[in-house]
Amino acid sequence: MTDERDRRPDYGDLLRSPYDPDPGSGREREGEGDLPWIPAVIAATIGALVVSSYVVFSIVTAPEVAGDETASTSTTSTVPVPVQSDELPIGFTALTPEVGARVEDVRVSARGTSVAVSTAVPGGTDPAAVPPIEVAYWELESDGVPNAMTAQYGELGVLGNITIEFASLPQMRRPELRAYVAEGAYEQSVTIDLPDGFVLPETYVGIAVDMGDGRFVQITELTIGDGWGYVSWVTEGDFPAKVDTVVTFVGTDDPASEDVVDPTRLTSPRLRTIGQGTGPRPVPSMYGFSGSSQLVRSGEPLGESNAPTALTVEFRVVMPEAIADPVPVELSSFG
Amino acid sequence: MKARSISLIIVAFILGALAAGGIGVRVIREVNTTEDATSLPQSSSTTTIAGLAPRTYQVDPFETLVSSTSLTPVGIEAGGGKLSIDYDLVTLSPHEGVDPIEFFGNFGAVTVIDNADLDHIFPREWAVETIDGVIRGGPANPSTRAARFDVNDGFSITEIRSVTITKAYAPFAVSTPFTLSVDDPVVDVAGGVSVELLNISDQGSSTIVQLGIDLDDPELASFFVTGDGPGWRSSVFEAEGRPRVNLTWIDGELPSAIPLMAIGTVWLPIAGEFPVSLEGIT
Lengths: 335, 282
Hints:
Chain A is built from 3 helices and 18 strands. Chain A is mainly β. Residues 30-49 of chain B have low confidence and may be disordered.
């Protein structure tokens, strides 16, 4: 059965011009050559309006930032305020809870190897309230062979900086510096009356200070002049010590003297009394296995009017009560 | 309306939305940038750096650590072709019970220098980077607490980009035994310090040994020479011009290898360069 409308004439075909394209071409078929631009423009406009509305809404309803409490809180956490450290400065190795050390320089010459070490306290600690580190001795290992120090010393005016001397090690391989910190101190003071009949200068040998348990400080030489002196010593029994010497010229008291030191004495430099001339600057004592020192005069020069009638000598010896386990101090950059 | 037309409308809608969205994002960024300039970081930056540990200091928040000393700039001044940066030094070295250093002057006068006032370091060479280049300078000596630089007359401190200590030294004691002889009259006792036997003369029963001390850099060493061992008596130090020492030997014939001891201070270089902050200067 056929619908009546299907039999209606195709007026399009009737109206087609001979110049019209071939209807077989799809593009030029009826109704499809006219794109719907107006609806497309309207759609684009609507889309833009919708999104713009959302943008405006977002800006208007965004939370205030300036002065906002939340923002302040985040600032505190994002820009950390510097804080005082309670630790040692970078590069320092803790020798004790209160003092650290760092190697600053190593110098090797034909006379020996010299290691320069600085010391510091942790942040927040008053360095004037912490005594200098007392290292019983240092050890410098090279290629697996340990070398004990030959001396360590500092100087007034050079706070906390220690110079450590070793035998010459021209070719250090895999060097390692170790500190053996002294724990506690034991002091022994011995006063000896030197024999009568002295004629200055006089030299004495064979004096020993007994530190107990088979340990002695041997005074290898004590020379006393009329205003100068010299002492050298070595420990026996494998322990480090600090030795100070005071020689007293007995009978040189002068009641009329206004000098602060009466009677006249010779002392280790660090015991020199203020105001008694010039000379080498006093060096703080540090532990060693041996040592020597020029003795300096305190008091009036000796003369015929105040010639000594006797000599006494006091040796003040300090040794560690104990020695802590070794602490390696970074040295690799100098190897 | 056919399917093709509907597709075209949908595409047009999306394009319009995207265009508006792009403009909107730009607008939002502009708004936020303006607010950031006058306010504080946004929550987005919080998540980025919240994990940073706070910077620590030993003595002062704006310090520079050199060896065991804290250096803090306390003043800066430019004018007349000069730039000067004043600084304080605070030692971290433990020194309870350490006597202050004493100098003996004329008529028994004694000058005492407190430990806090010592020259703990010598920040000798500084580099100031400016928009036009690098200016080099530094303090004249260890006791000076000001680094000075030659700059143009119109120089302003606002031109400074950065300040760095490029060479610093710390003092260490030296106590070195050595010998001199007529055949070997000059000995290097420390880096840049040599001692020369100048003269030997008899004076009654004593012998006077005259020595000269040569310092490659007088600012980096301070030395005294004494006799080593018994037999030596007084010594006289002459600091005018080239330092000289006269030693008196009283123990008979002077040994051919004269035993001596060099005592003093050398300034040893501290490895590294040290940035300096000027932020703390008020």
